Amino acid sequence: MTRHKNIKRLLLIVSIFSILTLVGCTGSDWMIDNPYAEVDWTQYQQVKANFHTHTTQSDGRESPAQVIALYDSLDYGALALTDHNRVTWPWQEYEQHLDQLEMIAIQGAEASRHHHMGTFFCNVPGDTSVTGSLAEVRKQNGLAIMFHPGRYDWTVADYVALYRDWSECIGMEIYNQGDRYSGDRETWDQVLTALMPEGRPVWGFSDDDLHNEGHLGRNWTVLLLPERSSGAVRQAMEKGVFFFVYAPERKEGLLPPEIQSIQVDSQEGTIEINATGYDRIEWISQGNSVHQGESIDLSATPDARGYLRAVLYAGDDNTLIGTQPFRIQRQGK
User: Fold this and answer.
1) Model pTM score
2) 3-state DSSP call for residue 46?
């Protein structure tokens, strides 16, 4: 009898294991961290923004008022003035008709006595070291972005260590003043490859780095906002609720594609983009193109590991809009 009971118990265990195994293979075992999960695509506003500009308060050619007017003329909805080692703030000192603008003014500076970084929502013009500047940003509850990484001899390990230690540092520029440093995306993907499996995103920004009018309007961010306020801008920057844009011919050339919605189904392991004005959608993981098309099935894309990001191209592939990275992981692995 004891032997029969043991056999029945073993059969029961085997049956339960088999059921669990089948459940695990139904496609419901994907974890996808979606930065756009909270977006109501029918209600949120898409707001054009730039987070790297200079004025005559540092080495820019135009005055603060002129810079504000230039971006307002191109329908930007949010702007940070980021003069070198100077917080050009509040705008009321330079723009007398601020209340007539729909543009959201973002407090900022470029700390440039070390690897250049943007500091936002704080009064931090910069210290003599990266850690010193970030410590001040942390103290004042601000945010930071590493500017034009391709300009420096930092290794990927240097960036990985920085982002692990400083949660206030939310991202890096991957397009700067057109596309001055094409290696910036490679660096970004290497950083994402190291950090995304840990659940530490690093958001990608595209900025004019304006010093004169000739730099205007090639690079911008599209913020997805429930309302037009500095608080909503900050939340979008922190959570990656935005797209990056590169339009080398400015408004005279091709317009970048427009992303109208993104649908993520963790149960099925799929991501789908609804957009207009694109000729090709490329999905990138670990720096490699792993798929093309408006939707991707993770179960059918074995080379997608750790994270995915999408880039939508128009025309000759120089005009584009890109998403922030989605962390992907098969449950239990």
Assistant:
1) 0.90
2) strand
